[in-house]
């Protein structure tokens, strides 16, 4: 299921989402609102609907709101596609989609109620804060900058991550941005560095790039601290037994400083791991194993559920609860994918 594409320019990277599912989605909960800066507030419960983007049997793209319990579609929100990120606001009122406009990649907001589309920013991988007030996203030249925008005032703060990503590091092509549980930090997953190198011709004859590489069995992540007066960033290195790009990283809103990583396993079971940040360090705990060969698509905001794809031609979307270290209640959401092929989901 691994896909390798050579890109002619950075804007073309957005096309990867139409081919590969499992892009990271912003962590979402219920709306809290009102804080002057990202607040330390957690979702009371998971939203009752998820947004699923895919293609109809007639070849058009669309976004549907569905029940993760039954798979019943309640509404077709818009007949548009999305790539390099997809997010649902905590109150389920707005969707944030990403797409190319000329040579740029833009984030656009879609009203779930009316379908109205409006421009938000040049960027990718949008993630809405747990209180619904802030939008974090990747932006800048070759997408090495994180921005945090106040959706009420439009004030935007940015921080460059070039020194933490390496010369050819970037946040496109299987990168990710997600809020941690207390809303004061972001987890950032770097993209595949070779994609930018291929786009600008810097890879050289060997195809190797000079980004900052993690040791075998490890993975680089970036933590961005979001304070009232500015942003700060540091790099952490977590365990990654598979070292493949097909994974989902999402903030766990049930805990103040935690996030979840769902990884696809090759030739074995995938995993869902919780990483909890502490003073000067972090801890990792295996939360559950995924069935062999499935591709994770989205994690519930409170870390108690997961969506994943099964099969290849075409894959079928499944849902399961995460309880006491294992998956329970596994059930199909889209059994007939000949009518609707799933690309991404936002919960």
Low-confidence stretches: 1-36, 194-210
Helical content band: under 10%
Look at the structure and give the mean pLDDT.
81
Main sheet: which strands, in order across?
Answer: 3-2-1-24
Number of domains: 1
Radius of gyration: 18 Å
What does this protein structure show overall?
This protein is mostly beta strands and 347 residues long. The protein has a single domain, classed as Neuraminidase, CATH 2.120.10.30. 3% of the residues lie in helices and 46% in strands. The protein has two helices and 24 strands. The strands form six sheets. Strands 3-2-1-24 form a four-stranded antiparallel beta sheet, with no helix packed on it. The radius of gyration is 18 Å and the shape is globular. The two termini are 24 Å apart. The model is unreliable at 1-36 and 194-210 (pLDDT under 50).
How would you concisely characterize the structure shown here?
The chain contains 2 helices and 24 strands. By secondary structure, it is mostly beta strands.
Ordered list of secondary-structure elements with their pairings:
Blueprint: E1 50-56, E2 61-66, E3 73-78, E4 86-88, E5 94-101, E6 104-111, E7 117-122, E8 124-128, E9 134-139, E10 145-150, E11 156-160, H1 162-165, E12 176-179, E13 185-189, H2 193-200, E14 218-226, E15 231-239, E16 247-251, E17 258-263, E18 269-278, E19 281-292, E20 295-299, E21 305-310, E22 316-323, E23 326-334, E24 340-346
Antiparallel strand pairs: 1-2, 1-24, 2-3, 4-5, 5-6, 6-7, 8-9, 9-10, 10-11, 12-13, 13-14, 14-15, 16-17, 17-18, 18-19, 20-21, 21-22, 22-23
């Amino acid at each position: 299921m691994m896909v390798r594409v050579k890109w002619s320019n950075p804007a073309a990277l957005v096309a990867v989402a139409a081919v590969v599912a499992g892009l990271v989605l912003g962590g979402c909960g219920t709306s809290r609102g009102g804080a002057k800066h990202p607040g330390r507030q957690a979702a009371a419960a998971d939203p009752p609907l998820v947004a699923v983007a895919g293609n109809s049997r007639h070849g058009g793209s669309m976004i549907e709101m569905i029940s993760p319990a039954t798979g019943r579609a309640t509404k077709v929100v818009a007949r548009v596609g999305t790539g390099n990120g997809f997010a649902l606001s905590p109150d389920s009122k707005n969707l944030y989609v990403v797409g190319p406009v000329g040579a740029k990649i833009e984030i656009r907001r879609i009203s779930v109620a009316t379908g109205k589309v409006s421009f938000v920013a040049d960027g990718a991988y949008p993630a809405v804060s747990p209180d619904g007030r802030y939008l974090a996203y990747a932006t800048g030249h070759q997408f090495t900058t994180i921005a945090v925008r106040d959706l009420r005032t439009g004030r935007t703060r940015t921080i460059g991550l070039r020194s933490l990503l390496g010369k050819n590091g970037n946040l496109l092509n299987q990168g990710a941005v997600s809020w941690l549980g207390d809303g004061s930090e972001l987890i950032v997953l770097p993209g595949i560095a070779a994609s930018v190198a291929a786009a600008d011709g810097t890879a050289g004859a060997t195809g190797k790039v000079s980004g900052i590489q993690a040791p075998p069995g490890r993975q680089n992540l970036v933590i961005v601290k979001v304070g009232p007066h500015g942003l700060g960033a540091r790099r952490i290195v977590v365990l990654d037994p598979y070292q493949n790009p097909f994974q989902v990283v999402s903030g766990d809103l049930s805990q103040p400083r935690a996030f979840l990583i769902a990884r696809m396993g090759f030739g074995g079971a995938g995993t869902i791991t919780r990483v909890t940040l502490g003073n000067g360090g972090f801890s990792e705990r295996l939360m559950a194993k995924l069935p062999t060969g499935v591709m994770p698509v989205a994690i519930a905001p409170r870390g108690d559920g997961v969506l994943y794809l099964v099969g290849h031609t075409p894959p079928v979307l499944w849902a399961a609860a995460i309880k006491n270290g294992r998956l329970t209640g596994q059930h199909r959401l889209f059994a007939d994918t000949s009518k609707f092929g799933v690309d991404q989901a936002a919960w």
